[in-house]
Amino acid sequence: MKEKVNYMEDIFSEMYDKCNKSDMVLIGIGEEFQYNWDILLKNQRYREIEQEINEEMSERSGNEKEASYKWIIPFLQKMALDEWPDRILDEAYKKLEKITVDTNYFIITTVMDDYIYRYNFNKERVVTPCGGFRKMQCDINCSNVLTEPDDEAYKKVKLYFNKEISLKELKKPICEVCGSEKRFNQIGVSKYAENGYLPQWEIYTKWLQGTVNKKTCVIELGTGMYLPSIIRWPFEKIVYYNKKAFLYRIHASLYQMEKEISDRGIGIKENSVKFLANGFVK
To answer: From edge to edge, which strands make up the β-sheet containing 265-269?
Structure first.
């Protein structure tokens, strides 16, 4: 075990140095960096709420049953994110801050918890193509308009969580234009409003053009096969064509490197959050 720890420390130190010596640093963050929802799921009050919702839904039928109170869950997730920090995730992001400071970096993440925005990364250097909790949209995207999160609904869900009001006092957010449900702007809504991320995506693609023939350190953190066309496959392509690029692929199980780029990359079999959290920064 000690040998493994020393090996991981050496790899982390090498990656840290390579970032600082590179012209550009490209970072992809995937599903291993997802907030640990067990923090919420193991909460006694949350389990009581699940039971209460299930009992209420059992009294309904058809579409009415399907629509009933499911909208509460994302608001409870947002509450958990706001009030119950994931300590190891905190430490990992803090290390990533130190790795990227004074570098020409860009971060793309498929994680939808917005945790990355808690830290001092330049928001112009971050893109979240799968969305998050920062904006809301009409479920069917009737007008292609994003709005601020519904603070009133959020406050009432928290009051319900704290047993200050009843379940039936809650009212789900409704689109002012068509009357459909309003949901957080995330992949998974009926019709995802891509205008939430597209302006930032354009900045990202222009930045990527600058990596051509530049010494580029490419880092994949916990990016498995969830939407591989966003991070995993494009990163491989960048390293394949740019002979000055080097890829660190860190994942608990999907760490393997493609043969064509194996001489300019290393696969690290380790949970990426723990790898960063435990890394030593000079």
So the answer is: 126-127, 105-109, 24-29, 216-221, 245-251, 265-269
